[in-house]
Write a structure and sequence with these properties.
The protein is an alpha/beta fold and 209 residues long. Helix content is 56%, strand content 13%. Bound molecules: ligand Z5A.
Length: 209
Amino acid sequence: MQNSAKFIVIEGLEGAGKSSAVALVKQLIENAGHSLVTTREPGGTPMAEAIRDCVKQHWVDETVTIEAELLLMYAARAQLLHNVILPAMAQGHWVLGDRHDMSSQAYQGGGRGVDNAMLKALRDITLKNFRPDFTLYLDVEPSEGLKRARGRGELDRIEHEHLDFFVRTRQRYLALAKADRHCAIIDTMQTMENVHQQIRHEISLFLAA
Ligand code: Z5A
């Protein structure tokens, strides 16, 4: 029997509404009769969660280099892919990811200015030909996203970046999302109810395809 397990990813800036989108998509996929494993990046295995803490925390008297941040993101992704995502899919479970490789393309590529050749090399080493079957990119204006994220409490190291960083990250996200025929863009500068309605529509199209 053909294994039709799918990998779906939710992407977007902080405050885009990924957390509630993950909960909604999980419900829709499970209602369609598929068993589902959810993941988050960086994170999702004991080692990858330790990397998550490492990249998000503030380091006093030490600059976190762009290279270190980049390599840590891919180290965490390798752990998650080989220990969770691929084994789950091999058993027929669908996987829903809160962030994946598009985050590195957008944050490290767009935000930090890492060049495409380096990103491609790391992606080739880490993922080979593995790609999401479907991505929902939740678009938010950076100032609004940060306002929502701030409303939730203390900001982590990356969230402390200047607005410009998030503007570049969003530009890269939009360029990637528009170029990817397996990606739908959801405008989240509207009520949560409308956002969820659009998500339902996109997932129903994906399930029917
Ligand atoms: N990162 C990276 O640089 N490179 C990589 O390769 C990867 C990640 C994988 C991970 O942090 C950090 O690592 C992230 C990117 C970087 N850094 N930053 N900055 P994370 O996983 O904790 O990600 P996050 O984006 O910071 O999570 P978040 O702030 O929780 O975002 P969210 O899940 O999209 O937000 P939310 O919790 O769903 O919503 C935030 C609030 O807004 C909440 O109170 C909602 O009720 C509210 N909200 C959401 N939507 C709406 C609408 N439509 N209207 C009004 N209010 C809303």
